[in-house]
Amino acid sequence: MKKPSPFIAYFAFIILGMPFGLLNIAWTYIQEDFDLPLSALGVLMTIGTTGHLITAFASGRIIGRAGAGTFLLAGSALGTLGLLGVAVAPGWGLLLITIFIASLGGGVLDAGLNTVISARFAVRHMNWLHACFGIGMTLGPRIVTVTVETLDQSWRWSYAAVMVLQVLLTIMLLVTRHTWTIQADENSNEAGSAQAPARMTETLAVPTVILGFLLFAAYGGAEIGTGQLANTLLVKGRDLDANVASAWISLYWGSFTVVRILIGVAANRVSNQRLLRASMIGSVVGVALLWLHVANFFDMVGLMIMGASFASIFPTLTAETPGRVGLRHAPNAVGVQIGMAGVGGALLPAVATAVAEQTGLEAIALLLLLNVVLFVALYEFMRRRPVQPGKSEYTVGVPGKINI
To answer: How far apart are CA 251 and CA 235, in angstroms?
Structure first.
């Protein structure tokens, strides 16, 4: 069967990243519009994560029954509906409902595309896929800033603009629906063959799967939490100009994106372990600079180092999932790993904002530091665990390398 176009997947991930980037800046205006406390951000992100997590847990089973193409099409349609709702929601309650709908759709696209790309494409495509997410995250803050500060329009128009792009994606997925399969043979796992995805209960019995869930939750807290909390820390906690803070957050996501692109282009001779180890060290250095707050310049440098260091972690660990847990478990494992990253991304801002309201906004930087140390420790522990039997059967290219 014909391979799906990776360019559609790239476009989808740009769109997936945009709402996260929008919220990094739009939250300030949402909070003012609905007269909300800072801790309400935790409520919003928890609602969004719940939708993401539901689809993550269900993704393997639904893909096995309905096929990846139908799954992705439904997710894009849900995302369109959710974004429209966010753009027009008149009250806080309705905004939360529409955020939930949008997160259901985003979770479907996230889990479905990661599953297909990790199974059918070389690892370079996984890095480029997640680089496109970074592009969306980079564009998001600037879209809100231009909409509100330059065009003097409501933050809602930024969500409406992304909704238009989501409509285009839905049309693309409708036209190419039958190409989106996990294996090249159309009579393979999605048709109910012996390689059909495992039951979730079977997947949860694999020790490396559970450890992977914890690692992705900690990583999600670091990546998403930094992007979401940095604006509050810099503007409200350290009196930085809002436009400057927006530019710095764009630099965080920009360095994140550029490094992902470079890895996809030139990392075929780099050991996964060395790449991940360097990324872990860089993450600690970057967050330490942000926490120490020696000067505003070093805050910016710290954010850029963090973005560059985070770049390789998620796509490399995700691409290795079929080899780490086996192809039968991959749809379940990839879906839930993505969901757990969302859980971490919601949990850290919820905890950090609650603590910051009681102790001061500098608590945000300290909690970001502790979270990074946690995911580094979890990675080191997982690295010393025995690999799931059968790894070599499923590893793409040369084991232990990122192959192009």
So the answer is: 16
Q: Is the Cβ–Cβ distance between 218 and 370 less than 8 Å?
A: no
Class of domain 6-183+193-394 (CATH, top level): mainly alpha
Confidence at residue 385, expressed as pLDDT on a 0 to 100 scale:
66
Q: Distance between CA 37 and CA 44 in Å, rounded? A: 12
Q: With the C-alpha atoms ordered 264, 265, 271, 277, is the resulting torsion angle positive or negative?
A: negative
Instruction: Give, for 121, the enclosing helix (H) or strand (E).
Output: none
Kindly report the backbone phi and psi dihedral angles of residue 271, in degrees, each rounded to the nearest multiple of 5, phi listed first: -65, 135
pLDDT in tens, 336-369: 787 788 889 889 998 999 999 899 999 999 999 9
CA–CA separation, 322 and 206 (whole Å)? 13
Alpha-carbon span 356 to 235, nearest angstrom:
14
The residues facing 401 across adjacent strands are 271
Which residue, chain included where needed, has tokens 């209960």?
Answer: 201
359 Cβ neighbours under 8 A, 6+ residues apart: none
**Please, are residues 340 and 328 in contact by the beta-carbon 8 Å criterion?**
no
What is the average pLDDT across 124-151?
A: 87
- pLDDT (0 to 100) of residue 285: 97
For the stretch 391-401, pLDDT in tens is: 433 333 333 33
Look up the pTM and report it: 0.72
Q: What is the pLDDT of residues 242-264, one digit of tens each?
A: 889 888 988 998 898 899 888 87
**Does residue 119 surpass a pLDDT of 80?**
no
Q: Name the nearest CA neighbour of 313 among 352, 284, 291.
A: 284
SS3 content of the chain, % helix, strand, coil (to 5): 80, 0, 20
What pLDDT is stored for residue 393 in this prediction?
35
Tokens, residue 100: 């939930």
Residue 328 exposure: Cα atoms within 13 Å on the Cβ side: 16
3-state class (DSSP) for residue 211? helix
Q: How remote is the C-alpha of 341 from its chain's centroid?
A: 7
CA angle (313 as vertex; 393, 56 as ends), nearest 5: 75
Contact 177, 70 (CB under 8 A): yes
Structure tokens given for 295 = 């000067």
- Which two three-digit tokens encode residue 242? 């809002």
320: helix, strand or coil:
coil
CA distance linking residue 145 with residue 246, whole number of Å:
7
